[in-house]
Design goal:
Layout (H helix, E strand, L loop, with lengths): L18 E2 L5 E3 L3 E6 L8 E7 L2 E6 L3 E14 L7 E3 L4 E4 L4 E16 L1
Antiparallel strand pairs: 1-3, 2-5, 3-4, 4-9, 5-9, 6-7, 6-8, 6-9
Amino acid sequence: MTLQPGTVTDAATLPIPLEPLPVEQLVAGSPRAGFIELTAAIGGVEIGVWEHTPGTSTDVETDEVFVVLSGTATVSFEEPGMDAIELRTGSVARLAAGMRTTWTVHETLRKVYIAG
């Protein structure tokens, strides 16, 4: 999907194709995840909507800021001295490239992300 200038979409209800996560990322459950890129990169920045169903998985992050549209999750970090963060509707968070994270999604999480 490409969001054209002067148009609108509902990020909360946008259909997102979900797929099982790679086995090497699974920690618990059978989560599925997917995303829709809303725009071609604007100034080198990607904007999209991402969703992850309940379960636990690991990831290596990219530089991004996101706003949670729905759901709840706990994100823990492998980096020493970093506390886990709790996400819920309305949470705004920032991740940096290379961070190693574990996402424990309690209720299907949907976010709008801006990534560079």
